[in-house]
Amino acid sequence: MRAALTKQKCAVFSILLLCNYCTYTLSAPIYQYIDSNGVLTYTDKQLPGSKPFELNDEIIEHIENQVKLNTVKHAGGETLKIKNELYAPVEIQLTLENVDNVVGAANKKLHWILPPRKEIRLVTLTPFDRTKPMRYTPKLAYALGDPRTKPQPYRYPLPWRGGPFQQTQGPGGKFSHSGPKGRYARDIGMPEGTPIIAARSGIVVKVENNQTGQGTNPAGNFIRILHDDGTMSVYLHLKKGSIRHKEGQHVKVGEQIALSGNTGRSTGPHLHFVVQRNVGMALESIPYDFTQPVNSKTIYRGRVTNN
């Protein structure tokens, strides 16, 4: 690539270029800079003012305000409760550190699977010496999903309408599909505004719908849907304001859920589609199949499905 790639003027070319980069191991870094016209531009040459571009399709989901640890003080001591406001189960791990004058779960890791929209009592702590205060530091870790569930066989219909489109990066792609959360993801190059449909029925768990351009989240606008077998499908880089469903709503397969976009850390308009599950305090992508073979050499046209 000898000339700079301008994101706004060469959207179609950028998709093809991305395909080439993802088919082979990257032999040179990509740089990004703002040109004299204020346009974000990509190039394989390190120019003055340019910065290395690292494409990252990892999903940043802020659930800390929806998984809440509360302390209830009473005459006998303190009770720790946790509330899950999400529409999906959450695996939780609580550790008490810097413990002093505490009877209870000192220096132990407490583990639970918290159902959706539930609050439970974790532990009640009492002092050894009631004339002295208890001291401890709670450390809470959590992950979406229930690791006890087992994925069931399912072939996903193509999650878009229209076309023809091509896969620009497949599972294990060196460009951005090497991490555990996105190893089996697929990128499909398509124009902004392409209808995106639910490839499987489920409950909407998380939605990001207000991001413009690169924004603060590498995933851009996205929707996460929980399925009956505990797996979750995620649709990334969606157009701002296009997601039709709210958290907690049920979505049927074949139903339009959004429009494709170019938000987040994206080199061109495309849909990033991934299926994930909780493998034990962590989300990881899992292999999946579409109802027809998908690769970078074949053109695919999505259609409405009533499966």
CATH homologous superfamily classification of the largest domain: Glucose Permease (Domain IIA)
Radius of gyration: 23 Å
Number of helices, counting only DSSP H or I runs of 4 residues or more:
1
Broad shape: elongated
Q: For the report, how would you describe the main beta sheet?
A: 9 strands, antiparallel
Mean pLDDT, all residues: 80
- Which architecture name of the largest domain does CATH use? Distorted Sandwich
What is the CATH domain class of the largest domain? Mainly Beta
Measured distance between first and last alpha carbons: 43 Å
- SSE order in H/E notation? EHEEEEEEEEEEEEEEEEEEEEEE
Uncertain stretches of 5 or more adjacent residues: 1-28
| Structural class by sheet pairing and helices | mainly beta
CATH topology grouping of the largest domain: Glucose Permease (Domain IIA)
Q: How many structural domains can be distinguished in the coordinates?
A: 3
Describe the protein's architecture and organization.
The structure is a single chain. The chain has about 300 residues and is mainly beta. It folds into three domains: about 1-55, no CATH class; about 65-145, Immunoglobulin-like; about 150-300, Glucose Permease (Domain IIA) (Distorted Sandwich), CATH 2.70.70.10. It contains one helix and 23 strands. The chain has one helix spanning about 10-25; strands at about 5, 30-35, 40-45, 50, 65-75, 75-85, 90-100, 110-115, 120-125, 135-145, 155, 160-170, 185-190, 195, 200-210, 220-225, 230-240, 250, 255-260, 270-280, 285, 290, 300. A hairpin with a 5-residue loop joins strand 2 (about 30-35) and strand 3 (about 40-45). InterPro entries: Cell_wall_metabolism_enzyme, Dup_hybrid_motif, M23ase_b-sheet_dom.
